[in-house]
Amino acid sequence: MIKVELKDGSKIEVEEGKTILEVAKQISEGLARNSLAGRVDGEVKDLRTPIKKDCKLEILTFEDEDGKKAYWHTTSHIMAQAIKRIYGESVKLAIGPAIANGFYYDFDVEKPFSEEDLVKIEEEMKKIVKENLEITNYTLPRQEAIALMKQRQEPYKLELIEELPEGEEISFYDQGEFKELCAGPHIMRTGSVKAFKLLNSSAAYWRGDETKQTLQRIYGISFPKASMLEEHMHMLEEAKKRDHRKLGKELDLFFFDETAPGMAYWLPKGFTMMNVLIDLWRKEHKKRGYQEFSGPQLNSSSLWKTSGHWDHYKEDMFVLTDNEGAEQALKPMNCPNSIKVYQTKLRSYKDLPLRFSDIDVIHRYEKSGQLNGLFRVRMFRQDDSHNYVMESQIKDEIKDVLEIAKRLYSIFGLDFILTLSTRPEDYMGELSLWNKAEEDLKDVLNELCGKDNYRVNEGDGAFYGPKIDIKMKDCLGREWQMGTVQVDFQLPLRFNLSYIDSDGEKKTPIMIHRALFGSFERFIGILTEHFAGAFPTWLAPVQVRVLTIADSHKEYAKEVEEALEKAGIRAEVDDRQEKIGYKIREAQLQKVPYMLILGDKEVEGKAVGVRSRKEGDIGQMPLNDFIAKIKEEIETYAQ
Fold first, then answer.
1. pLDDT of residue 413
2. Together in a domain, 526 and 555
3. In this predicted structure, which of 28-42, 461-475, 485-499, 615-629 has the lowest mean pLDDT?
4. Is the N or the C terminus of the chain less surrounded, counting Cβ atoms within 10 Å?
5. How many folded domains does the chain comprise?
6. Residue 298: enclosing H or E segment and its boundaries?
7. Pairwise CA distance, residues 243 & 221, whole Å
8. What is the CATH number of the domain that holds 35?
9. How far apart are the C-alpha atoms of 486 and 470, rounded to whole Å?
10. Catalytic residue chosen out of the listed positions 179, 217, 363, 364
11. Does one domain contain both 44 and 151?
12. What CATH number does residue 360 fall under?
């Protein structure tokens, strides 16, 4: 018998060699029916995996992220099997992973898939599901695996196998006649996939390399219940209406041009929003002792070699050679510049924590096929800070950082989830320091979130330290990777950073990397979709539009505009010779929070006719009363 510790901390005894599915049945038949995979000592495994030693075990269902991934990964195999059945050997298989919201599979085909093709593929997938094929896993020696893929004429699979080390056992999954090179995990049978939809197809490069073969990628989604699929499809339709690229153009916020791929042009209205967010960010950080600096955009390769980015990140950097033959790079992150600021003085333990923040523009070479509006760009402003602390200060500093995150997200009415990523196998540094840092992070998360109200990704930390990732949910329930808080033991050592401790000895500080919005560009893209372009009054680029009924009201409109601007309210006047109904409709399409309608009565009484984007016609009120009302709304960050 072996001992198994479950997610809730309870322990059970099971017979050695029982599979994860059999353990799930021992716990509960209901749990077994809903189980999709298991997490054994932090590693996700098939339900068919035998348990051979004492361990921690979590049974994963569709409620769990890794459970969803196993389900979606299996659906991608069902899709590939259907395509092979329909098109035969003319189709070559590439890869088909689960992704954040569903799955995709890449195929080498003679011509792109059409909408009619997707319908045909879905019908064949339904047949495979109805057949309820058992999914089996086995391994082959490397040479046998190579021979199998040659026999099946699968060049992309062959390439993947040939890159694996000699002597490696290669994992395969079979379902009926379909054999797939795959590490898994997968669910037990095809019949468990109850509801699915193929969403679209597009071109994609093999392994994301623009110099390699162009493939056809099909995206899809699947769920255990038809009602869940219906709900998801409704969400996708709503998301199309909220697409930030579409709204950015309609609301005159930003645009992209082919002369600068992945780099946004910010129009006056969009840049106004950018500055409002930056002002908010500065205000919240200044009162917590953060010091803002700005560093060079271009640094010598020597800096990036010392930091380690040259060896590990060079292919994602914009590298150039100057007129004297020296290599330089546009900075892809701010940490080395922050370190240079730290090194300008001899630091004392009395100076720590020392918090250097910056919002400099940074550049990263994202492949053209990965660019996606403001969500994936090559140039952006990251809301960075690098905080230097003593080991004893890690816990309090992390707590303070997460309190700022909580404050900022609450202003937007956004919920967020925290994920702790722990020590990976290739970690660097002293084990005792890692253990201390991880315990500190867990204590902070338990205090702020409550035990079990945050996620743990065992072994997913950076090689230089554990981290906490911030994931945000928008009004459609979509989850976004936002900020991150990372404890770094290594960069301070690489740059020989030090401070004088209370005993007069030199010590090495610990560096905390942190970004809360992630990047202002991406955050504005997310907010645009979250609010569907109808931004709260405090954030809206134009907060009030003043509308005249007739030319005789133009002079008073100018007075109203000046009074609003004097009060710090962003306003514009529409005094065109158009009908008032047309002006109102246009202001509504531009999603302006308030319209002030001016006619004879308003001019005579020095008042304004107020129309709200949310509430409709509010009625007439004195101008000063309206200014007081909107100022309170702005100052309290009302939604």
1. 86
2. no
3. 461-475
4. N
5. 4
6. strand 298-300
7. 19
8. 3.10.20.30
9. 11
10. 364
11. no
12. 3.30.930.10
Domain assignment present for 7 = yes
Continuous segment of H or E residues that includes residue 136: strand 135-141
Give residue 208's pLDDT.
82
Give the pair of three-digit tokens for residue 588: 């509504």
pTM for this entry: 0.81
pLDDT for 434: 84
Of 64, 384, 474, 488, the active-site residue reads 384
Q: What's the average model confidence in pLDDT over 542-571?
A: 96
Question: What is the full DSSP assignment across 510-578?
Answer: EEEEEESSS-HHHHHHHHHHHTTT---TTT-S--EEEEESSGGGHHHHHHHHHHHHHTT--EEEE--SS
Q: Structure tokens of 329?
A: 């790079």
Shared domain check, 513 and 595: no
Q: Give the model confidence (pLDDT) of 218-268 as tens digits.
A: 999 999 999 999 999 998 898 889 999 999 999 999 999 999 999 999 999
pLDDT tens, 283-301? 999 999 999 999 999 999 9
Residue 522 φ then ψ, to 5°: -65, -40
**Catalytic-labelled residue, pool 244, 331, 507, 513:** 513
In a domain, 539, yes or no: no
Residue 229's domain spans which residues? Answer: 83-236
From the list 77, 386, 507, 522, the catalytic residue is: 386
Q: What is the mean pLDDT of residues 152-171?
A: 90
Segment holding 622, helix H or strand E: strand 616-622
Claim to verify: residue 446 and residue 580 sit in the same structural domain: no
Task: Compute the distance between CA of residue 216 and CA of residue 196 in angstroms, rounded to an integer.
Answer: 19
Contact between 582 and 597 (Cβ < 8 Å)? no
Greatest mean pLDDT among 49-53, 71-75, 456-460: 71-75
Residue 262 in any domain: the answer is no
Q: Are residues 520 and 573 in the same domain?
A: no
Q: Which amino acid is at 218?
A: I
- Told to judge if 335 belongs to the known catalytic residues of this protein, a careful annotator would answer yes
Whether residues 348 and 418 fall in one domain: yes
Domain stops at, among 236, 258, 282:
236
467 is catalytic: yes
What is the domain-level CATH number for residue 185? Answer: 3.30.980.10
Clarify whether 566 is annotated catalytic: no
Give alpha helix (H) positions in 242-374: 244-250, 268-286, 301-307, 309-312, 335-342
Active-site pick, 175, 216, 328, 382: 382
User: Which sign does the torsion angle of CA 204, 209, 210, 214 carry?
Assistant: negative
Helix (H/G/I), strand (E/B), else coil: 47: coil
User: Do strands 510-515 and 319-321 pair parallel, antiparallel, or not at all (unpaired)?
Assistant: unpaired
**Mean pLDDT, the chain, whole residue set:** 92
Neighbours of 626 (CB within 10 A): 24
Q: Which of 111-115, 410-414, 451-455 has the weakest average pLDDT?
A: 451-455
Average pLDDT over residues 158-168: 88
Residues 159 and 183 in one domain: yes
Query: Which residue is catalytic, options 335, 381, 440, 583?
Result: 335
| Catalytic, out of 84, 157, 467, 530 | 467
pLDDT tens by residue, 418-438: 889 888 887 877 888 888 888
Which DSSP symbol is given to 239?
H
Q: Are strands 607-612 and 616-622 parallel, antiparallel or unpaired?
A: antiparallel
The reply to whether 202 and 343 lie within a common domain is no
374 located within any domain: yes
Residue 382 annotated in active site: yes
How much is the pLDDT for 565?
Answer: 96
